[in-house]
Every structure is written in structure tokens, then in C-alpha cells.
Design goal:
Rossmann fold, 2 domains, four-stranded parallel sheet, 8 strands, about 45% helix, globular
Length: about 325
């Protein structure tokens, strides 16, 4: 059938894949960081405190003091291309696009900051994608990461007259493709060190203890990832949780406490990896690689190595391709 002359353009139906990561400021400057933190810390999935209690704390104390400190940290990791997290996520999408070919459109977005999830979904739909796989790049499920990314995507759909069909990438903390990729990446990097580590510390992002008590599976997912990976590696592995914030009790042990205690336990040669992060960012490069190193060395450590995340490495992209192709089956 030939459409009338005034009919809107008809695009061939396509499949879209949207890689989603946490987010980053637009620049390593106090004003940009304040804007980013205001959005991030206003998310009720992230801060599970009643709004009337939290809002005065956020705007009266945190957003007055924390942005400058965080901006200093961002300046230490910022590259000529921009934020490491944004650059790597963009590269992951480009590499996955090459793997998937013309049959699939791959894009990327951030839960906080830009590029945003809403505009990315709208762009995919405008490009003819009638079926879209949302792929939050969090191996271990957490309401504060996976769920809030999906929340924002669903809110975008709620405002659309013609919605695309949607699938969401499930957590892959124990997936063979993920564990095998971690093993290959870590073994490759350990083999390239100029010293032999006595221990490998697996540092996951921390969460308040209350999230576990409320039924969030994140802690269990992290522990299972660590167990499955540790069983495959020749080096002894430990588990810790980083990035504590506020006065509430957080998942333990804390990464900074473990690093400070190692030398007194005879561990003076250490490698640290962050398997829960799909891409290197301020938490891995600055918190672990700079401040973590300082904590370990000042406590008497001798050799320290921070291992890269999977990023857009061959191991990482091969894993992403396997996960995405499986989830697109039948489409």
C-alpha cells in the first residue's frame, strides 16, 4: 500500500540496545558536581530516608560542602576526552555496535547526568526501534542501581503515546560469561605485574546494611561473584565494600579498613580489583587507585596494583555481546 503524501516517514522496524551506567558530572568543577550530586542524592532509591528528614540535610549541609571535595577527586581522574565512566561506556557501546552489526542499534545513557535515559529511548524510537533492550551494566542487582535505572526508563515510556516493546537485562553476577571474562581479565593483568601479589582484594561498592535487611539481594550477589571467581583464580581472594557514606551501618568489611590492616597481617604485596563496576570511574581510579594505595602503603605495604575493570576490553565486550545476544533471542 502506498501511503498518502502527507504521511509521516515510515522507518523499517529495528531492535535497539541501551547500555546504562550510573552517571557523571559534565565537568570536574564544583558547580557541575553539585548539580550531579543533587540529582543523584535526591533519588529515593539511593537515599531511603523520609524526604522531610533528608532534604534539609542534603541542601543545608551536603551540597554546601561535598561538591568541592568531589570536584578535586574528579580532576584527578578526568581525561582529555572527559569523564572516564562516560568515555568507557561510550566505547563499550561502539564496540558492541560493531559486534552486532546493522541489525541492531546500540546506544548508551546515564541514570544521572547526561546523556539521559529518557532522550536516549526517544532517539532509539525515532530511529525505528520498536523493540528495545534496556541493559543496566550492574552485574549484581541493587534497588539503588538496577531498579532506579529501570524506573526512569519506565517513566519515559509512561509519557509516550507509541511505546516500544521493552526487555530488561537481568543481573548477571553468576553468569558464566561474566565470571569467565573476569577470570581472563584478572589473570592477564596479574601476569603483567612486576611483582607477585600475596592477595587479591575484590572491592564492591558498599550499601547500607539496612538494604540487606529489607531484602535487597546485592550483598548475596557480590558474595557469590567473589566465590565463583575465587574458585578459578590461583591467588587467595578477599572481599570488601567501599564508598561508605554517612553514619549508618554499611556492609562490611570496609575496603579502607582491610587495606589498613593487611601489612600488620603480613600482606605487603597486594592487587585490588572491582568486579562490580563495569567501567573504571572515580570510585575505582581515585578511591581505590589513589586513596586506597595511600592507605595501604602508609600502613606498611610494599607493592600495590589496582587492576582495571572489564571496560571495553576484548574480554568485556565479548561478555556483553554474549549477554545481549541471549536477551535478544526471539526478537
Amino acid at each position: 500500500m502506498i501511503p498518502p503524501p502527507d504521511h509521516p516517514p515510515i522507518r523499517s522496524p529495528r531492535i535497539g540496545v541501551l547500555l546504562i551506567n550510573l552517571g557523571t558530572p559534565d565537568a570536574p568543577e564544583t558547580a557541575s558536581v553539585r548539580k550531579y550530586l543533587a540529582e543523584f542524592l535526591s533519588d529515593p532509591r539511593v537515599i531511603e530516608i523520609p524526604r522531610y528528614v533528608w532534604k534539609p540535610i542534603l541542601h543545608g549541609i551536603i551540597l554546601r560542602t561535598r561538591p568541592a571535595k568531589s570536584a578535586h577527586a574528579y580532576k584527578q581522574v578526568w581525561t582529555e576526552e572527559g569523564s572516564p565512566l562516560a568515555v568507557i561506556t561510550r566505547n563499550q557501546a561502539a564496540a558492541l555496535q560493531r559486534r552486532c552489526g546493522d541489525a541492531v542499534t546500540v546506544d548508551w545513557a546515564m541514570r544521572y547526568g547526561s546523556p539521559g535515559i529518557g532522550p536516549a529511548i526517544e532517539q532509539l524510537k525515532a530511529g525505528g526501534c520498536e523493540r528495545i533492550l534496556l541493559a543496566p551494566l550492574y552485574p549484581q542487582y541493587c534497588a539503588a542501581t538496577t531498579a532506579t535505572a529501570n524506573d526512569l526508563a519506565f517513566a519515559t515510556l509512561a509519557a509516550m503515546r507509541w511505546q516500544p516493546a521493552i526487555r530488561t537485562l537481568p543481573p548477571y553476577h553468576d553468569d558464566e560469561a561474566y565470571i569467565a571474562a573476569l577470570q581472563a581479565s584478572i589473570e592477564r593483568q596479574l601476569g603483567g605485574l612486576d611483582f607477585s601479589p600475596q592477595r587479591l582484594l575484590l572491592s564492591f561498592h558498599g550499601m547500607p546494611q539496612r538494604t540487606l535487611e529489607l531484602g535487597d539481594p546485592y550483598h548475596c550477589h557480590c558474595r557469590k561473584t567473589a566465590r565463583l571467581l575465587g574458585e578459578r583464580l590461583a591467588i587467595q581472594t578477599d572481599v570488601a565494600f567501599q564508598s561508605r557514606f554517612g553514619r549508618a551501618k554499611w556492609l562490611e568489611p570496609a575496603t579502607e579498613d582491610v587495606l589498613a590492616a593487611y601489612p600488620s597481617q603480613g600482606v605487603t604485596r597486594l592487587a585490588i580489583a572491582a568486579p562490580g563496576f563495569s567501567a573504571d570511574c572515580i570510585e575505582t581510579i581515585e578511591e581505590l587507585g589513589i586513596r586506597g594505595r595511600e592507605t595501604f602503603m602508609s600502613a606498611g605495604g610494599g607493592s600495590f596494583a589496582r587492576l582495571d575493570c572489564l571496560n571495553d576490553s576484548t574480554e568485556g565486550v565479548t561478555m556483553l555481546e554474549a549477554l545481549v545476544r541471549r536477551e535478544l533471542a526471539g526478537w
